[in-house]
Design a protein that fits this description.
The protein is mainly beta. It has one helix at residues 3-24; strands at 47-48, 59-67, 76-83, 89-91, 99-101, 105-112, 119-125, 141-147, 150-157, 165-176, 179-191, 197-203, 208-214, 221-223, 230-232, 235-240, 259-261, 264-265. Helix content is 8%, strand content 42%.
Length: 266
């Protein structure tokens, strides 16, 4: 995601929330929602016979994928888990969901042990799965996949009020040197009012970023004067990414806070 777009989104949401609180005449502390801390994430067990053995008490599975992640031709498993703690299911009297659920989420990766049977814990990431930051925000986690040895995490940004901006993103992680690292990402951004879309493709093998902007008002669209119809014209831009070591999955504390290059963030 581009940094400028993200900051604009946050500013619009702040204005929207302030206006709604004034209109509803709600109490001053109504928007002070609780969010999980490090103490709300349990340590997942290291061994188990089946994937469900790794789901802590009071947690549920909201996403699951299977496939070979470490090249041993065994069927590994990735689980996206969410806590069900009632203290994070909070009443909201302003715009958005009536019950705002800020329960903790985490990613658990399991390697199949073909020799001994069962599974071994390969990784636990407590902050890679985002939590909604506003009652007007839709569910940000959409899907987890394992394809050709790559762990894919799919996310979405969409708000029912406060901004026209929306996006969907795909983060690609590979198991290299005993840890999962980011090898690529695909981000699609869309301005619902102008119709402008931006497609960003990050490749951390080639250290290249491709940006394709289509539609919207101004020089993103060209008009055919013969029939009065307009056709979209894409603007393509290539950028070089810094040549640095692959970023581990465990280092992501919050999505869109990592400044990759220029205004572009992941």
């Amino acid at each position: 995601m581009r940094k400028a777009a993200w900051y604009t989104l946050m500013s619009l949401l702040t204005l929207s929330t302030t206006a709604s609180v004034q209109a509803e005449d709600t109490s001053a502390d109504e928007g002070d929602f609780k969010y999980p801390t490090a103490l709300d994430y349990p340590k997942v067990r290291k061994l188990g016979l089946k994937p469900n053995d790794f789901v802590p008490k009071g947690w549920k599975i909201i996403g699951q994928a299977t496939g070979d992640l470490n090249g041993d031709k065994a069927t590994d498993t990735a689980l996206v888990l969410q806590s069900t703690d009632k203290k994070f299911k909070q009443a909201n009297h302003a715009l958005g969901e009536a019950i705002f659920d800020t329960n903790a989420r985490m990613l658990v990766v399991l390697f199949k042990d073909s020799a001994k049977g069962g599974f071994n814990l390969a990784g636990q990431a407590n902050t890679i799965i985002p939590i909604p930051d506003s009652p007007t925000m839709g569910e940000p986690f959409t899907k987890v996949e394992i394809k050709s040895g790559v762990l894919n995490l799919n996310f979405a940004v969409w708000y029912s009020a406060g901004t026209w901006f929306s996006s969907d993103s795909l983060y690609k992680f590979k198991y290299l040197n005993d840890r999962f690292v980011l090898i690529g990402a695909e981000v699609n951004e869309f301005q619902r009012n102008s119709g402008q879309s931006t497609k960003l493709s990050y490749n951390f093998y080639t250290h290249k970023l491709k940006s394709v902007i289509t539609g919207g008002a101004g020089d993103g669209t060209e008009e055919n004067s013969d029939n009065g119809e307009s056709s979209e014209k894409s603007k393509v831009k290539w950028l070089s990414l810094p040549n640095r070591p692959p970023r581990p999955m465990s280092s992501f504390k919050k999505l869109n806070e990592w400044k990759v290059v220029g205004e572009y963030t992941l």
